[in-house]
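lol so apparently i was supposed to do this last week
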Amino acid sequence: MNTIKDIIDKPIFTKEELILLLSSEKEDKQLIFSKATEIKAEYVGRKVYFRGLIEFSNKCRKNCFYCGIRAGNNIINRYEVSEEEVIDAVKYAYENNYGSIVLQAGERNDRQFVETISNILKKIKKIANGKLGITLSLGEQTEKTYRKWMENGAHRYLLRIETSNPDLYKKLHPDDDGHRFEIRLECLQLLKKIGYQVGTGVMIGLPFQTIEHLADDLLFFKEFDVDMVGMGPYIEHEQTPLYQYKDQLINKTNRFNLSLKMIAILRIMMKDINIAATTAMQTLDPAGREKALKVGANIIMPNLTPVKYRENYLLYEDKPCIDEEASECKNCLEARIKIAGDEIGYGEWGDSKHFANKK
Ligand code: SAM
Ligand code: SF4
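anyway here it is w/ S-adenosylmethionine bound
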């Protein structure tokens, strides 16, 4: 049988090989991590790009079983950041050379929401003289809406598939037309067709999820030929239906380690894509994002949401940095990135090299 060392040097991995890599421990795991660090340095460089994150609204029409801001959670206060506050956050990002911002929110598709986002996009372009890259993470929308938002200035879109296994997807969502795996997939295909840099991702350590599912997720990213991936551990939230399975989850240390392995293996498989070191990584380990950067991630999303709204955007328990002002957040991240041995690509969009290389 092939050793881990033989496998990581192969040009492509089979599902069986991925299962072996995901199950590795100790020296074997370290071999994977070192290989991923090497590949990151060679193919995307040791630069980390900032995406200032604006959690624009927690109003959501959906009821995903894992998410703390699902429509059915009536304990939280619903908010929408005002246009002025968005503009202030954008100015902060621009003046501090962040390079890009991400606009994220619960999913809505009413006309007013679509128009509000369009107006904000146009304003962002104007204020930043077209110099800030814009990523959207606003869920499933029609082709018309995706096109409109692109015309208004967005060029990257993040829509996690959550899991590439349709049966598991069903267990994580209500069984209705608002939560169909096929529609999720169609949206991802639309985004690609329209010309966005497309990002997707999964949660790791979900109830009912197996190592085989995760191996399939990695194969899905490769097969779909994604430009960007944001993935991280699933973290339970008391006010959600999945909370009842909390005792069946793998423990948080193992969930964190599995997430690191997913990032490292993906970096080896897809050498020139952008991979985010997600906030959920830091929730499970105070140095989680630095560790993710070390094993292949190259994107960080400092939070620019006005502090007063943050306690109402709790997707999961113990979300970090909910009371840090943007400037504190920036200083803290700068130090963390230095520790990881990387530098920040200030003022650069840091687009997916994979997207450019495909053309
Ligand atoms: N509503 C949009 C959507 O669903 O694509 C964007 C916002 S949604 C809050 C962003 C991501 O949060 C989801 O894709 C999901 O993977 C993640 N998320 C939600 N609940 C989570 C949890 N309990 N643990 C970890 N990640 C979670
Ligand atoms: Fe809404 Fe997104 Fe949360 Fe699902 S994951 S409930 S769509 S915010």
